[in-house]
Structures are given as C-alpha cells and as structure tokens.
Amino acid sequence: MKSNKNKIKHSFDNKAFSYDDYAIVQKEVSNRLLERLSVIKIQPENILDIGCGTGNLSKMLSDLFPNATLNCLDISFNMLTESYKKNSNFNFILSDAENMPFKNNKFDLIVSSFTLHWCDEIEKIFFDIHRFLKRDGLFLFTTVGPSTLDELRKAYSFIDKEPHTNNFSDMHLYGDSLLKFGFHDPVMDTEKIVIEYESFQDVLNSLKKTGANTVIGQQPKFFNKSSYQQLSENYPINTANNRLPVTYEMIYGIAWKNLPNSIENTEVIPIKKI
C-alpha cells in the first residue's frame, strides 16, 4: 500500500507544473460538480477539498462561498505549491486521503474530485469523512468508473494481456460505502464524457501530463517504436472527424451526514435531472 502511495505522490509531484495545461476533463468535471452544488441551499463556513491538486476546484468553491474557510489537502507537495500560487489565503495540508489529520465535527462541506479512484481504503475514507462533518454537513464527490479509458485499454490488448490501465470501481461500491457509514440518502449518478484529440500522441500527453497514466501496483512498461506504432494503429478513431476519443465514465455522489431540518420538506433534485 505504501509503495502505491509513494508512486502516486511521485507522479503528481512530477506533473504538477504541466497539470493545468492538460487537465481538460478535470476542469470540466469541476464545473459540473459546482453546478450540482449551486442548487443546494447551503452556506458552509469551513470547507475541505480532498485531493485539491493545483487548486482549480478550491478557487471555484471560494468564489461560490466567499465567506468560507478553504482547507486544501493533497498528497503532492508540488500540487499544493501550485495551488498556493493561486490561493495563498487558503489552508494547505500535505497528507494522503487515507490518513487525514482532522478532528470530529469540523467541516460543513467536504468535496473531492478525481481523487478517490487513487485510494485503496474507500471505506476508511468515508468513515473519516462522516466523522469530520458537522451534524448537517454535506459530502460531494466525483471519481471515475469502469468504462474510463476503454479506448486505450482496447489498443493495449493488441500488444499483450497485461493491465496498462487501472481497474476502476463502479458507483455501487461508493453508494454502498456511504450507506454503511451512516450517510443520509446518498444520490449517485454517472455520465460519460468524451474528449477527442487529433493524434495518438496527444492522447498520451493528456494522460502523462496530468499524472493519469500511473498504473497502481504495476511497474512502468516501456515500448519500442514498433509497439508504439501498433498502439497508434489500433486505437479507436471517430471516423466522422478522424479524431481519437478518450472516454471518462464519471461518477457523482452527494450525501448528507444527517438530513438538515431546512430541507426536510423540500424536494431533493436527483443529479441526473440537473
């Protein structure tokens, strides 16, 4: 487990300075997460962003809730450094999500985007988040599901049968874990986002430059020119525009620690209807 964390930390430390230039889908998902949050009547005073990265979502949360205190947690020092450059008035915590150093009943709102799929101990994280939240606290997150990077997985199958992408859990694991640790009426939803690129190298850059090419539990694999050519030739292509798609199956989750009195008689809008 520790070796995986060191591998992830090292990867994101190395990619922190290029991350924002290539994080197209990550930024889009942050926007969609904030759209979901904006329809919920909540005025948090203390917010935690788990896996804050370079601070894009943290900045958006600060703009939405200007009176709130933002706490930004990440395993990567370099990611926190980039976040600090944008948001020097926030609090920054260098820690992995499975060992967060907070007291009970501390936060009104906890968010996490594009982070949970890197973690081994989801149940421990959800247990901790539940106790970190105040009584009427809200947990909102996104992560990726099993269909993510399907195109790359298919292209690699022409090379060998070894795993070259991570195995991502489906939304039922997250929903079941929320219920197990006492979250109130979690709402789960999924959608597919497809980003298209002009070349196979652009596809690889979109993953490498954001740290998303790290495969947990596997040693890095290097291919010669012949293997690279084979991957490029077998990567699926959109024949309508000759561009190469990259699919992300996004999982969204919203859950209250307890149902706030202010919304007990209010219609809750499922994510899928927004």
What are the key terms here?
single chain, 22% strand, 7 strands, seven-stranded mixed β-sheet, 274 residues, globular, alpha/beta
Explain what the structure shows.
It contains 10 helices and 7 strands. The protein is an alpha/beta fold and 274 residues long. The chain has one domain: Rossmann fold. A 7-stranded mixed β-sheet has the order 3-2-1-4-5-7-6, with helices on both faces. Helix 3 runs parallel beside helix 4 and helix 7 crosses helix 10. About 2% of the residues have low confidence.
Brief overview:
The chain is α/β, with parallel strands linked by helices. The protein is 36% helix and 22% strand. The radius of gyration is 19 Å and the shape is globular.
Topology of this structure?
Blueprint lengths: L1 H14 L3 H4 L1 H15 L7 E5 L5 H9 L4 E6 L2 H10 L4 E4 L12 E7 L8 H11 E12 L5 H7 L14 H10 L3 E14 L2 H9 L16 H10 L9 E13 L18
Parallel strand pairs: 1-2, 1-4, 2-3, 4-5
Antiparallel strand pairs: 5-7, 6-7
Helix pairs in contact: 3-4, 7-10
